[in-house]
Amino acid sequence: MSKNITAHLTTQLISWAFTLMVFWLLLSGFFKPLLLSFGLGSVVLVVYLLHRMNSFDGLNLGFPLKYSFLRYIGWLMGKVVLSSLEVTKLVWSTNKKLSPAVAKLPVSNSSVKSLALYTNSITLTPGTLSIDVDNEHVTVHALNARSIDELKAGEMAKGISTVAGVKT
Questions:
Q1: Are residues 109 and 160 in the same domain?
Q2: What does pLDDT average to in each consecutive run of 10 residues of the chain (168 residues)?
């Protein structure tokens, strides 16, 4: 490997290590030596595995925390909260207005990473579930047909296209 490639890989691994350490500290909130050493050990293990995976498949370890990704995650968390409230209202309501629906949504010309992000985003949103994926469609089950209509409107797909860097 050339010096430039090695320096780039080292920079990416250090970025991952720093991000994982901060993320671990934010999630755990523990500052005791034993727990900090466990956190450090887990970060070292993940960075080692990233390095090994890179040497095996040669894929870019690109740092995923770009502005468009963070904006999408914020939007998705908002959708998760709103969907949670809607599902709670549907389930606790005495007037059951459930209208379960299954639909196939088109996903042609999507990369594997974009498709994985899209299907996982659908599943993370309460009241919807990705139940099948192929090269052309994602089959989605929803507690309410309105959720399918929102997915068909394409706001989530447009957000993922922005994250993936695809112009729509």
A1: yes
A2: 75 88 87 92 93 76 73 89 89 81 88 88 92 92 91 90 70
